[in-house]
Each structure stands twice: as C-alpha cells, then as structure tokens.
Amino acid sequence: MERSQSESSTIVVWxxxxxxxxxxxxxxxxxxxxxxxxxxxxxxxxxxxDAYDLGASPDEYWHRIAKDLGRPLNQEWVDRLxxxxxxxxxxxxxxxxxxxxxxxxxxxPLGILSNAPDSLATAVRRASWSDVFETLVFxxxxxxxxxxxxxYGKTDERLGRAPSDVVFFDDRRENVxxxxxxxxxxxxxxxxxxxxxxxxxxxxxxx
Length: 207
Description:
The protein is an alpha/beta fold and 207 residues long.
C-alpha cells in the first residue's frame, strides 16, 4: 500500500518485555525448572539482569544466580535455563501480534528498542514474527541501557530518522520520560487497545 511522504518518515518503535512479549512468564518457568520458590529466585534473577542486558555472557549470568541460590550449575543446566528464559521473553503476545499486523498491512515501518541480553536478541532476530521490523536494537548491541539518554541517539542512527519521526511504546515510565526528553513521541504502554488509540492520534493507524 502506498504511503504519503509524511507517513513513510514515521516509524513505530516498541519495547519487548511487557509490551510485545508478555512479562511474568520467565520467573515461573525457571523456578519450576529449578524446583525453587519463585519468590526466592526473583531477587537474584533481577539483581544480575542489568549486567546481562549490557553484554555479560549466559555463563556469567546464570552462575551468579546459582551462587546466590547456593546451588552449583553445570553447563547443561546453564544452557537449559537460558533456553527457557529466552523462549519466555521472545514469544509475541496475541494482542500485540494483532496490532502489528494492522500496522504492517498499512505499511507502517516498525522497530524494536529493548534492554535484552545477546541470547534473547539473537532469538528475536531469528523469530519469524520479527521479519516485519525494519530495525532491531538491543542494549547488548550498544553496551547501553534505557533510560540512558545516549541510547536514544544511538538508536536514531540505526533507524536513520530524526527523533521527531519516532513513535515509541515502553511499559516503564522512566524509559518513556527519557525518550520524550530526547524528542521521541513516546507513550507508556498500558495495552494494545490504548496503544491503537494513541497510534490513531499519531496518524499512523486508522481509527
């Protein structure tokens, strides 16, 4: 479908976890695999996540968690846990899939900007659903994480667009605030229905 020049210059960029992919699945699945309470896994899982999202290896991440749990892990376990974690965070939510399909049908350019480790970034790039995205940017690519202001400028370079051409959805208010300060048309994700209304107001989706 042909688009006007103004439409074609706008790209809609999405966070991954909690927006395109449902949140809350990984901890439960990992806790079940390890046979530990989810509440006991949550603290070490998140305590070491930033370093993982910035480029630490799966071995480093899972062995740090294992040390906190007082439970040694061999390589087979590391591989298994990383596979579970990656599968949980790389599955597209049905309501997000429907919204992306509407945008793709309209010919709207799409992108991803997510704090994510390399193993997850690789899985997303290999997933068939990611083929509709023009540009995918992950914190592990940049060595920077949202809401660092540098992230948004680096992403502009990869998108090949000015800040005012970017419509962005993220479930974390601090990331949205930083994106707005940079000049993006950023919105807090509260669900696909609300996002569709916002996109209609932004002029990139029919109301």
